Amino acid sequence: MLTNLIDKELSRLKNAGLYRNLRLIERKQEPRVNIDGKDVILLCSNNYLGLANHPKIKEAAILAIEKYGFGSGASRLVSGNMEPHNELEQRLARFKGTEAALVFNSGYHANIGIITALAGRGDLIFSDKLNHASIVDACILSRAEVKRYPHGDVNALEGLLKKNSELRTPNSKLIITDGIFSMDGDIAPLKELSELADRYGCMLMVDDAHATGVLGSNGKGTLEHFGIDNPNPVLRHNGTSIIQMGTLGKALGCFGAYAAGSKKLIDYLINKARSFIYTTSLPPSVCAASIAAIDIIENEPQLRQNLWDRVKFFRDGLKNAGLDIMNSETQIIPVLIGKADKAVQISKNLLDKGIFVQAIRPPTVPDNTSRLRITLMANHSWDDLEYALETIKETVANFA
Ligand SMILES: Cc1ncc(COP(=O)(O)O)c(C=O)c1O
Q: Model-level pTM?
């Protein structure tokens, strides 16, 4: 019975062009990687600043392993709270300019923990329709009532906020948005969202998974990009400042995630976020690596400039060739294809030509919006980018 069900679903996925399989990267995470023994240009990693193989980060991890061993042995609240965990949180709070920060084991854990701690039965969540899957899952898990507003549409959101403030008084209201949208590469209208949150008495949470280390003149993320003041220790939005979440596994080249905000918020999350409480803490060496990554991000702004120079070159090149890059403004550049099987064919063809870019299909993106999701890195060589740009233009045109 069970195998029948599994077989049926797997063949449905295959027939619809939605079947997924794992590709093996045979060497380090660099702008070029090895797949099936072949050297290819990597255009689908979130290692935006090229830090995953940075010597200072590796050295920090190795030193921490020598000092602390590898595993932490328990959750933070039992006996797994070690010096690097606390140091990383202090370092993150300083970097983000918040009173405090809390480390989670991944971005997925962070969204599940933060959202389910802030909203529950009887509460209302307003969530952008294109928010990341971990936010969608967290909203379901919270048991709050979820109102999804059309992507980036502040007028539609205001309509929902108005309607719901007239109809009833929920215990609490939370607006949630990605900072940089993970599959579209556009940036949330955070200033307007923040004003709406103030006006309608909502908490506001931003997921800076893709913005941390990238957006803002110091790489602090979406708030810095928009010049939004998130003053400390002034408390806003029902007693918390804007809740910022971000990841350490993308531009920082490490692993894990954080929540950053007021001391009160962090204290609350330590007590209420189940994905923080009920899980073994990160290995201390992983925390030490992230501290080294923040140092690099603060001290080497040129890395960010290198990334943005490449983004401009690639985005302009695709756009001028008439490809639909949606509303991308960042290092995440989709090329809209439409049908899932066509996107997969193009991706396979590109791999044959030495370019690794994944086809992103439903359910990750809405039906008929399958796309190539191109992501750039600060250390891609110009020669590789020129070759990739020309080859992508030509290949997509061949499949038109
Ligand atoms: C917007 C967003 N939030 C959260 C996550 C989850 O982060 P992590 O990979 O650290 O679990 C991701 C990516 O995977 C993401 O794109």
A: 0.95
- Model confidence over 63-119: pLDDT tens digits? 999 999 999 999 999 999 999 999 999 999 999 999 999 999 999 999 999 999 999
Ordered by start, the domain boundaries in the chain are 19-48+301-398, 55-299
Give the pocket of ligand 1 (CB within 6 Å): 106-108, 111, 132, 134, 178, 182, 207, 209-210, 247, 249, 257
Pocket test for ligand 1, best of 109, 134, 214, 331 (most atoms within 8 A of CB): 134
Q: Which CATH class is domain 55-299?
A: alpha beta
Locate the DSSP E strands across 172-323: 173-178, 203-207, 243-247, 257-261
* Ligand 1 centroid, distance to 209 Cα (angstroms): 6
For the domain spanning 19-48+301-398, the CATH number is 3.90.1150.10
Per residue in 370-392, pLDDT (tens digit) is 999 999 999 999 999 999 999 99
